[in-house]
Fold this sequence. Notes:
This protein is mainly α. The chain has helices at about 1-10, 35-45, 65-79; strands at about 25-30, 50-55. The termini are far apart.
Amino acid sequence: DSFVTGMAAAAPDFDFSFIREQRGMFSNSGLTPLQVDQLRNDYAIYIVGNGRMNVAGMTEANLPRICESIAAVLESLAK
């Protein structure tokens, strides 16, 4: 829930509310392989190539950086 709230603040034009319906340690982010590569290369954020991410590894300390990085990638590739 914190991730969805963080993404709503960081990237209001993109809807991540579907993640609330997912269960378990991993969630499908909906990110494309190109977006995943950019997150890895530019921000050192590692998500599986198919967009699956480990939500159990997200903490209050690292969540802002994760959300801001994903938002930056979404914005840069939306242009």
